[in-house]
Amino acid sequence: MRDNYAxxxxxxxxxxxxxxxxxxxxVDEAVAADGxxxxxxxxxxxxxxxVARAGVTVTGLDVSKPMLARLGRKVAALPDDIRSQVTVDHxxxxxxxxxxxxxxxxxxxxxxxxxxQVSDQLDALRNIYRHLRPGGRLILNFFDPSLEYIVAHxxxxxxxxxxxxxxxxxxxxGRLLVEWATIQYSQHLQRIDQYYVYDEVxxxxxxxxRLYRNxxxxxxxxxxxxHLLARCxxxxxxxxxxxxxxxxxxxxxxxxxxxxxxxxG
Length: 265
Ligand SMILES: C[S@@+](CC[C@H](N)C(=O)[O-])C[C@H]1O[C@@H](n2cnc3c(N)ncnc32)[C@H](O)[C@@H]1O
Description:
Layout (H helix, E strand, L loop, with lengths): L8 H7 L7 H11 L3 E4 L7 H6 L4 E5 L2 H12 L3 H4 L2 E5 L11 E6 L10 H13 L1 E12 L3 H6 L9 E8 L6 E11 L4 E11 L5 E12 L3 H10 L3 E6 L13 E7 L5
Parallel strand pairs: 1-2, 1-4, 2-3, 4-5
Antiparallel strand pairs: 5-11, 6-7, 7-8, 8-9, 10-11
S-adenosylmethionine binds next to strand 2.
């Protein structure tokens, strides 16, 4: 499968350095699970490291070697007592095989949307189910697809290059990174192809370089995912729309799923 994150794992950390909205939620859920937790698509540890620092025994799994290499360096710098609770594995959420039956498996920050086919989604959900202890939970989040946004980014001019209004400082060079993007929705495939360009701007305002990032995702509708969960044997515990656990009540909110392997499952 294609590695969306191979290009620049450091760039990932620069772009998402300020995104912390979900971290407290996942830390609380991991502490409450009271057992070994597994993060699928753990990336460079944006969520996994705070979970570990909260005293949770956690395994992180990711398909991208560059992302894991960066995470490995961060784990190596942890104090001994925290580092000893963290395991990092290279693998695919559709096919990994690990020994423990986990109390919680969580998939933050829309990583599940990188599964591009229904067969991939089913393989991942069934594999997650097998790795949960009875009563163990699956928690994941992804965006609720907005029909207005999809229409705006479909068809011949849907993928036009535009500035996103976002910019970042690259700590490696001190230069400003000005973000541009094309976002193309293919409605019949429920697929999004995102292509990001970062203009590197020096202190004198000159564009002196470019960085690039690609992302492919398959968006999932609310009722579609309820059916997928049921098809794989999960019970739905909660569907939140916000990370402070308000129920999902309107489109445009995040879809935050809490499901469990039945106690007698
Ligand atoms: C949006 S990043 C999330 C990283 C991290 N969990 C966070 O919240 O910052 C998605 C991650 O999922 C990983 N990923 C994509 N498909 C995967 C798969 N089939 N199995 C395991 N990891 C996968 C990517 O390599 C990437 O690191």
